[in-house]
Each structure stands twice: as C-alpha cells, then as structure tokens.
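Reopening this ticket.

The earlier resolution said the output was attached, but the attachment link was broken on my side. Pasting everything inline this time so it's all in one place.
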Amino acid sequence: MKNVILLLLSVCGMLACTHTPKWELVWEDNFDGAEPDTTIWSRIPRGRPDWPNTQSFDNRCYEMRDGCLILKGIVNDNMDVDTAKYLTGGLWTKDKHAFHRGRIEVRARLHGARGAWPAIWTLPYEIDKYVWPMGGEVDIMERLNYDSIVYQTVHSHYTYTLGIENNPKHGGTASINPEDFNVYGVDFWPDSLVFHVNGKRHFVYPRIETEQEGQFPFDIPQYLLIDMQLGGTWVGPVDSTDLPVEMEVDWVRHYQWK
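Inline output:
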C-alpha cells in the first residue's frame, strides 16, 4: 500500500511539473447581439476636453453589424438639437466592469478620415479616488487621420505633471495595415505594461526605482473605453467630406496568466 501511495505522489508530481503557464481567457464580448450588453457597456457622454467633446448618444453613431460593434463619426445635421458640429459614438465599462492585471485585447478595423481619432484605452476604475493624472491612463491604441501607424502610450502624474517622458520612455508606435482588422493589446503586470499589436510586442513601460511621485500607478483595477473621436489639437481639423467614418470592433477579450 505504501508503494502505491508513493507511486501516486510521484505521478502527481510529474503532472504538476508539466503544467505550462499560459494566458487563459476569463472574459470576452463578441458583440453578437442586437445591442451592446448594457450590464457591461454604457455610451460615453459629452465632455469638455478634446477627446469627448463630440461624444453623443445619437443612435446614428452606433450600430451592430455582422457581429461587430460599429462606432461612427458623422456630421451633425441639426445644430438646433445639438450644438456640436460633429457627433461620435463611444462605449465604456465605467462603474460596470473592471479589469485588474492580465491581458486586454481588442480586435478592430479603423476607417480613415481627416480629423478621425479612434482610441482604445483604460482609466482607473475607482476614478473618484484616483483623479487624473494620479491614477494614470493607458492608451492601448490611438490612430490619427489615415495613418498606417498607431500610438501606444501611458500618462501619469510622473509623465504629465512632472513632465518625465523619457525615463523611461512613455510611448511608442506600431505599424498596421489600415485596411485590415488588427488586434491591439496590453499586458498589465505589477512591474510593467507590455504593449503589442497582432501579438507582436512593440513597447514596454516598466516600474523603476525613483524618488519622484506617481511613476507607476497602473497596478489597480481599470475600466475600458472604446471610442471614435473627431478633431482636436493633436489630430487636427476635420474634413466633413470624409464623413461618415467608422470604427469596427469585432471583440474584446481579457486574459489572466495561469
């Protein structure tokens, strides 16, 4: 009997040693329904900064088509109802669904227009506790106009208020084929953020030893934003003849390292 127990323990030990850590899917949204899941997503309201100042609840800015979420930028044809010259659609998981550590990936196709500024990004889930920029901002993807590159960037008190953008470098770019769907992702680790496009790593932002405040505030729960944006200081003016413009979102996935 003793030999049998020892054999079982030996086999269990060998099986444990053969386990290979990997990313395991813990949550996903494939946008297969007639509407986005309202237990997860809300439409982003209008705001004063550049990025949300065209956000709208107008139904024309949203569509579910062929298993994709479609976020649009359109010309506003009735400024008596809404004074914004352009209207755009965006969704966020604020107050509904948090992501903490692990990998976030979004598969999307970005249609081009002059002044188009689609983005996929995260902010602290406890936004009232971590007032921007103290809790940081993680830009998984930003694309301008008709560019064939995307920007992947972090912002924080350290990079924004103190202006320390190169110790370590706080952003990078990656090439895309703008005609295709691409997968944009970031891995949240306690000591780093690892950015990638189509599974290829392009940029890492590490936690470093520093006496300066707020260098790596990112190891906290996040909420996700996906939005079409139009115009602003960075992207430049909008050409209305290029509109409407669309951002097609195929799926969102969250993985944990197991």
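Reporter confirms the inline version is readable. The first helix runs from residue 2 to 17. The radius of gyration is 21 Å.
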